[in-house]
Amino acid sequence: EFHFAFVSMVPLVTAGKAVGVLVLATMDAKVIESGHTQQILNSLSSQAATVVFNARLLADLAAREARMRAEQNFRQMVLDAMGEGLLVVDGEAKIIYVNNRLLRMTGYDRESLYGHSVGMIFHPDQRDQLVDSLTGQRRSTLPFSQKLFTRDGRVFPVLLSRAVAHLPDGTGHTTVMVITDLSDLQRHEEALKLQTLRLKAINRASNAISSASTLLDVIHVSLDSAVEIVRGVAASILLISGDAPKRLAMAAATGPQVSD
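Structure (tokenized):
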């Protein structure tokens, strides 16, 4: 608790913008009204206003940088979480960005890729055509189907799509490339094709067995169908002998060395 007789308020202004007010309490009005005191107060208020303005400016800049970093981290997280490989090349077809998926696909690290030609991660047979197309040296349609060349020399098929973005100052362009691994898709297609062939073979076997007239015909059809379904080389059927339950007797066989 304190006592005062007079209150003076001095605006805090900097660069023509009011940022606050200085409130001063005194017991004597003469102190405030003197010219010397007014000069001191004006100087103090100007300095205080400048400090407040700069502090707010710095806080605003820090908040903007924090938001930018958060947005950048979010975009980076989205790009790295993509199921496809992503890379960006400049006008000379040199790599300037890759996401984590592409690093896993190729086996390289970023330091080994940045600044190098994008051709290093594609098959040598397609490398020159790809680079020439990206740099504009060859006006030709780039095939969507490409072969990726990994660090350890493995080659696997990929699907390539791209989009060109021109720089704001008009001095060049960058190319964004999305690369999809087709090896898993091809394996799934082959498995599905094999399953379809097996189902067709089973259907043919069922029809043949249904139309067989004798036990021997059923046995031969079953053998041939079993070999076809599993892509086997040979097969045989052994039946328990009626006279000797502990013995198996050859009923039929099929294969390259079996003769009638």
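The two ends are 121 Å apart (CA to CA). The mean pLDDT is 76.
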